[in-house]
User: Fold these one by one.
Assistant:
Number 1:
Amino acid sequence: MRIVFFGDSITDCERDRADETSLGNGYVKILADKLRPIYPDTDIELINKGISGNEVCDLLARVQKDVIDLRPDAVVMMIGINNTIHKFKYGKELNLKQFERDLTELLTRLKEAGIVVILLEPFLLPAPDKLRMRKLFNSELEIINRVGLKIADEYVAYDEMFNGLTQSIPYTEYSADGVHPTHRGSRLIADTAIKAIRKHLL
């Protein structure tokens, strides 16, 4: 079974772009180390196609080459946080209607190619410099939730999960900057994503 991981820096996590077997040092690598021992007799190929800084439109632009052409059985995708961050960091406008169209087309193209789509919800933790982003990110999350639940085969919600945990544990335990997960945060992503993946293992 071939599974492609598709997304931004949270997926990329310093993978070696020159090495197709490189999984980076984030949740994808942790997930791989957990999944393979569970299915020692199953040929599972994991491919990391995350690229730091990507937005939904970037994934749409490269979905054919980086996912569909590889003919995977499943794609695990987390995307969306940069659409909000780039608005505040670079002044790049976030057109929510276009965002919804792009996300819908992205997921639809994957489904039409016969690929199981496991969508991982992006998250934003309450780092002081990220609080002003929350309102816009909530509007984006509404779209991701609606489109994901309609089209994806699995939808794993992380924003409420992480923010619920930070009611009793400092957010820095899971992400120093509110966006990029620590090792503990990456473990949590992997542990929950693997449950969704196992439902579709051939």
Number 2:
Amino acid sequence: MKIGAFTFGGGWAMISIIEREVVDKYGWIKREDFLDLLAVAQSMPGLLAVNISVVVGDKLRGLKGSIAAATGTIIPSFVIILLIAMFLTPEMITSSPTLSAIFKGIRPVVVALIVAPVFTTAKSAKIGWKTAWIPAAVALLIWSKIPVISNPILYIILGGLIGYLHLRNLSKRKSNSESQQ
């Protein structure tokens, strides 16, 4: 959401909240399953928080769970944005020192809410210092705006291909070791 010069992050801020509730607090889904569902949700078009809610709702209760989870994720944000749009204009925010200070104070919180799930997801996915360069390099290449190289679809396809080859290699090793025993 963008109001004047202020931009607020989307789905990543809610991922840590959803993970905490679904995995840690209620134990509805194992952490590894949540990471798999998060990967599916990221590949779907739309808002990440809504997608992960829909996927988790489907896993828990099917279609009714998906509808309930999507509604529960969308309605609070919709109401808050609607109230902001009804009562605050960009001119009002930028011209009022108090409102401007409030929105400037929100910025670090939004950054923290976006960064926190990155670290927890990396930890859960067992990304260590030896492999952290891979997502960092991909992020920098996408950010570079170099034609073709900055296209995220390229990295989705490469990641899928490398993952497929890795799993195929692991299964070959496993079948070879089993046949030797």
Number 3:
Amino acid sequence: MLNVELGTPYTAVSSLLETEPWGFESEDKFLNAAVRYQLRLRKGYNPEAEGLMILEICKDIEKRLGRTGKPQYDEKGERIYSDRPIDIDILLFGDNKIDCEELTVPHKLMYERDFVMIPLREIMY
């Protein structure tokens, strides 16, 4: 689906990594993977605008694959994690840094999560 929506095939995909849930308890295991794309960006592009457009594509795919609801937070503002059919995160966007309400790139928790870093290391140049 991402290939179609982004208009280009991926350039690398990691192997699948099965892990325990992170941040909550569940009987379900998670399947994790990383995918790399080389996007054709317009000359003079705005990384934040492009990143938000890609985020919108990812969120739409999540909905089509059965994800419902919005993230929930506790009284301290900490994210409450739960089972979900799919979760697509934008980890990196070239060398760009994006920090806005909807999107932070590089992903702020990726370095704390082996289930992210192991597949990501597989596909890095």
